[in-house]
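Re: [help] complex structure
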Amino acid sequence: MRGAEFGSRDGEAACYVRRVIKVDHQSSLLTVRGVTKSFGGVRALRGVDLDIVAGEVHCVLGQNGAGKSTLIKTLAGVHRPDEGEIVWLGENVEIADPDAAIELGIATMYQELDVVDGLTIAENIFLGHELARGGFTQRAEAARQTRELLRRLGHANLSPNTEVGSLSAANKQIVSMARALSHDIKLIIMDEPSAVLDTEEVKNLFAVVRELTAAGIAVVYITHRLEEIREIGDRITVLKDGRTTAVGLSAAETPKAELIRLMTGREVANVFPERVPVASDAPVVLDVQGLGLDGVFSDVSFSVRAGEVVGLAGLVGSGRSEILETVYGARRSNTGSVRVRDKVLPRGSVRAAVGAGIGLSPEERKSQGLVLDEPIFVNIALASMKRFAKGGFLDDRAARKVAREQIDAFELRPADPDRPARTLSGGNQQKILLARWLVHGTEVLLLDEPTRGVDVGARAEIYALIRDLAAAGNAVVVVSSEIEEVLGLADVVLVVADGRILSALPSHQIDEHGVLDLVMKGSAA
Amino acid sequence: MSEPTTPTRARTVPTETGAVAAPAPEPAWRRFLSGSAGRNIGLVVALLVIVIVGAVTAPASFTSVDNLLVILRQASIIGVISIGMTLVIIAGGIDLSVGSVMGLASVVATLAAVQDLADNLHWSVMVVIALAVGVGAGLINGIVIAYGNVVAFMATLAMLVGARGLAEILAERRTLVVQDRGFITFMNADILGVDILIWIFAIVAALGWVLLNRTTFGRRTVAVGGNREAARLAGIDVRRHTMWLYAITGLCAGIAAVMILGRTTAGTSTHGQLYELDAIAAVVVGGTLLVGGRGTITGTVFGVLIFATLSNVFIQNNLSSSVQAVAKGVIIVVAVLLQQRFSRPPGRG
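Output below.
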């Protein structure tokens, strides 16, 4: 399983039954031609073409920063294009605002779901177009229509009166979709809907998408996961640097390697870097014994040697992220111990963990990792402020200098230490976090979903960086939802299910099926 | 955002072909105004407008050095409180108790026992006691907020009520006159023609600026306000930091108590009433975001000066304090509206 390649799983994806979509320009639902859009001086779209026909799943692929979000927002009426034309059902249209988009029949499901937690499912679905007579809401009618919509989406088990805040991310997506369907829509845009879902939920999502397309609704599906495109997509449009590099490719017939080339402009044969065997006499740096957190996980033991990458594979909710956070002291363990070299860390102290040389790159980069409005150099120096200060007084020149070195070393873009972190793509934001700990000087790196929201091209870079950090003597622990990633990156794979470690094997002794089997067994028990 | 090559500098000129669109240029004035210098320019303009109105409506009395000093003296006490408030608000908190704590500190410092002690030793004993009361109350706020996980609004609201009540009990609702002539003389002296009170404000503002912009403490304050969880996971002790922030607002309230003792020569439980609202208004008008993560000391100083000058202009024109209050309200709303217009990042709404 060394050096897993993209494209190695084509055989699996091909077993899904494909519908044949006839591309007939008479039946074009939406045609976008030569759309450009700039913000200040940044040109987000430099000429985008798109052609959607009724009833298809049209995947839009592109690296972070390729312009996918801007394109979506242009179609949703959030942004107005500077140039170019949008043709809807044969007519030139201007989508002035989100209402106008809905009016035309275009609904958008954003990544950050736009549902209101404090309202019920029915209230969310009819938010903004409440069913009312004489100012009084018609609750019974709304509930009835909600039930009907949920049934159409195959979720008749959800009650219209359930508060949305109590729903899982997957069910919130269903609510968001039901809201879209409550309008008379012909096109629904989904921005990385699978990012927050586990394997089972993704299957469910696909079933719903197939329902929609069967009813003649077109779906624009944005994703980073290439394998999903084969499973659900009919045609593919690829964006790179704000331009379309390919329009309407066949999802079934276009090889993955070709898609990666179109997205990145280069061939990515081996995305995972070569493993460097860990020296047999490498010292154990991180030693976790019998760690437990009541109600979440128990009896977690593992150790990581210098230069070694240990991967935690498991589903969302298996306890893998919590294990990392507890090792880091961000959660206070109830049992067990964490040792770095010879030092036993006190429970629940991030500062002690950081002081002992542990660094964490958290799961939610934006909400847990970065101070988004602060510049890159401040974010890089955030954990090492003392180093860039004399007697409590900041030395920003030193911090900028070191940040510039990291920017060069990591090929961080834009290469401007004063750029706010907010303006960077996911991959570059991830690099800030790696740089933060490199600057601080760590012995143990805990990486939670290091490539979430990072596009394929940049992923290979992140993988290489992680390997470099290990080679430099760090003990690395990686958590990822993508089993392929854990297998490709780690030397040792720990399979986590239901708060327990089920197996610890060298990565060449286990494959994806092995992991999945264990996960299924563990979850059933 | 594909390879955004320093967009502010590299702006392309529209080409004749029209194939490559020039980025819709943000008007220069708008870009300028949305920068931090620009926001302060807006405040300078606002202050200038008020000054011009004052000079036109009351030419004889408004435009004099004496009146300038009156304005600054007026601004000084609320100014000191606003400096501490700025830091807490940047960190995403709020301190409603500053006015009460100031009253309490003024009472404690003028209790008979303290005054006797000061009589025997030196009047600086009173000063130290007032500052200690401020820091102590601030630390209590900080501990309750940081370690008790109580929302800052509620914790400091409780202190607002409690400290005022305690001050009333201690003062037995009487006014405690400062006996020490040395203290009174010192506090009402001037250096280079400028009152001690104004110097204190200037020094506190300067220290606040240095603290915010040049120290790790200030950088952490911004980080905690900008993203508390990220700060925590980067190894910053957010709780301890929060605690010290409230100690600082408490210290500022203590300093303000000393100042008001000097000015009124008496401690009473009613000192500092509603100062918290004036301070918050000055901070917000000065461009600090109430949600935290962004703000400046310079802006706050302007905010304080704007309100003090406005109040002076109204007094010079014999307008009632009720009219002043209405004007203040309008200014707060207009300032916040303008901020939202200009501080909006490009590409959003």
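Residues 1-25 of chain A have pLDDT under 50 and may be disordered.
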